[in-house]
């Protein structure tokens, strides 16, 4: 059993579109993980529907991150982390809709992460988005929804890396945490789920994880480096 599972105080939920299919896909992932090749793990299995694969992995990463945060959330509160930051340069505000207008609110990191997990869970529970019925198609904007989810899940890794990594090491979870993050980044890269600027808070770490990037992607990265460093982003 994964160490995170033992100490999780969250109860991760898994929405199952098709139990047999889910099991099959997860076994596929686990088998390849065993061969220590995370790059292969993230690739779309032959003959598999891309939306099904994105959905299955979204649920899996959501559960992983829930478990990871569950190991440290007693140490992340409004006193220790009064806002959702990734170091001193990046702060994320929580977006809410008030009178049909988007409003951004500064909340503690733990509140931000709770809101985020609730928001993802509501999408997973939404039959129009992640239907449990095989005959109901995925929505047309499914890829955009997935990108939104990954963009926001990334911020949880970033917050933990910047503010709680020593605790993760102390608890002896660093290997699992690093593998989870690496797997996440490989998946993001494989399906182009995030922009370079969105990944900027952990860019150095990502570069060290992914030393062999394609030339085309390097050029893209250089261009974006000229952009602003400090960013305040929405939810
Ligand atoms: Zn924190």
Automatic annotation (TrEMBL):
Start-end of Basic residues biased regions: 211-228
Keyword Disulfide bond: no
Region Disordered: start-end pairs: 210-235
Keywords: Kinase, Transferase
Lineage of origin: Eukaryota, Metamonada, Anaeramoebidae, Anaeramoeba
GO molecular function annotations of the record: kinase activity
Name of the protein: Mob kinase activator-like
InterPro entries from the UniProt entry: MOB_kinase_act_fam, MOB_kinase_act_sf
Domain of life: Eukaryota
UniProt key word Kinase: yes
């Amino acid at each position: 059993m994964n160490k995170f599972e033992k100490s999780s105080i969250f109860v991760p939920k898994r929405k199952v579109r098709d139990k047999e299919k889910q099991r099959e896909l997860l076994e596929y992932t686990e088998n390849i993980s065993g061969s220590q090749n995370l790059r292969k793990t993230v690739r779309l299995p032959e003959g598999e529907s891309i939306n099904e694969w994105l959905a299955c992995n979204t649920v899996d990463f959501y559960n992983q991150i829930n478990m990871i945060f569950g190991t440290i959330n007693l140490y992340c509160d409004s006193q220790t982390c009064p806002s959702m930051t990734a170091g001193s340069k990046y702060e994320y505000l929580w977006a809410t809709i008030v009178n049909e207008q988007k409003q951004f609110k500064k909340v503690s990191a733990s509140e931000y992460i709770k809101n985020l997990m609730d928001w993802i869970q509501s999408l997973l529970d939404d039959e129009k988005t992640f239907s449990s019925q095989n005959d109901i198609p995925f929505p047309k904007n499914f890829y955009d929804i997935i990108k939104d989810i990954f963009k926001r899940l990334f911020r949880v890794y970033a917050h933990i890396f910047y503010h709680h990594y020593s605790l993760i090491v102390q608890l002896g979870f660093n290997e699992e945490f690093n593998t989870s993050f690496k797997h996440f980044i490989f998946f993001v890269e494989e399906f182009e789920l995030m922009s370079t600027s969105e990944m900027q808070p952990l860019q150095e770490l990502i570069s060290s994880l992914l030393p062999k990037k394609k030339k085309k992607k390097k050029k893209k990265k250089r261009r974006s480096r000229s952009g602003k460093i400090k960013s305040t982003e929405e939810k």
